[in-house]
Amino acid sequence: MQFETCHIPGLVIVTPKVFSDSRGFFFEAYNRKPFEEAGITANFVQDNQSQSSYGVIRGLHFQRNPFAQSKLVRVLQGTILDVGVDIREGSPTFGQHFSIELSAENKKQLFLPAGFAHGFSVLSETAIVAYKCDNYYSKESEGGIRYDDPELAIDWKIDPAKAIVSGKDLELPLLSESFANFTY
Ligand SMILES: Cc1cn([C@H]2C[C@H](O)[C@@H](COP(=O)(O)OP(=O)(O)O[C@H]3O[C@@H](C)C(=O)[C@@H](O)[C@H]3O)O2)c(=O)[nH]c1=O
């Protein structure tokens, strides 16, 4: 299992060790010990799974305290562009985002600690996404940011005319509306 960091502290790219043989392959998607050794001590309590077709963008979502969630995201089928936006108050990288292609083929996972807004776009015909969360779903604690906030300028790598976004997500506020007190 390989753990890599990126330009935003806290985000971790996890690449499993894959054992291939004549039957197919095997890998450990999660094992508490190496994750803890890599500094990921999240106590996962909920597993989610969604299926989406090409052009779907889900996000950008987060939950407020006391239900803020760390997430470990992977793809069971297809390819997505997974995106994390730093919304940690006082963070030097506040408002910056990181994106990475996660696919059933590359088997990469993205760990996002609490304090990140999360979203993904579907780059393949369909995609099944699975993610572990270390806090329970709480409708009352849900928050979000517009996926097409010009300030974030996220390239979702899909034709904007083909974007499929839920009515709920289209009504999300901009980063500057949610975090009005923050100055760059
Ligand atoms: C997230 C969630 C939703 N639901 C319900 C609420 C709603 O009726 C239905 C669909 O919810 P949503 O439209 O919010 O689903 P979705 O847009 O897929 O929401 C997810 O997006 C990705 C990007 C995340 O990071 C997740 O944390 C989550 O916010 O499922 C649960 O019962 N439990 C959950 O944990």
SSE layout:
Blueprint (H helix, E strand, L loop, with lengths): L1 E4 L6 E4 L3 E3 L2 E3 L5 H6 L8 E8 L3 E7 L7 E7 L1 E8 L10 E7 L5 E4 L3 E7 L3 E8 L8 E3 L22 H4 L4 H4 L6
The protein binds dtdp-4-keto-L-rhamnose.
The site of dtdp-4-keto-L-rhamnose has 11 residues, from strand 5, strand 6 and strand 11.
Pathway: Carbohydrate biosynthesis; dTDP-L-rhamnose biosynthesis
EC number: 5.1.3.13
Function: Catalyzes the epimerization of the C3' and C5'positions of dTDP-6-deoxy-D-xylo-4-hexulose, forming dTDP-6-deoxy-L-lyxo-4-hexulose.
Bound molecules: dtdp-4-keto-L-rhamnose
Q: Structural class of the helices, strands and pairings?
A: mainly beta
Overall pLDDT level: 96
What would CATH call the homologous superfamily? Answer: Jelly Rolls
Strand order of the largest sheet: 1-2-10-7-12-5
Q: State the CATH topology.
A: Jelly Rolls
- How many β-strand runs? 13
Strand content: 35-45%
Number of helices: 3
Coarse shape: globular
Helicity, as a percent range: under 10%
Number of domains: 1
Major beta sheet summary: 6 strands, antiparallel
Order of helical and strand elements: EEEEHEEEEEEEEEHH
Kindly, what is the distance between the CA atoms of the first and last residues, rounded to a whole number of angstroms? 37 Å
| CATH level-two architecture | Sandwich
Supply the CATH class: Mainly Beta
- Poorly predicted tracts of residues: none
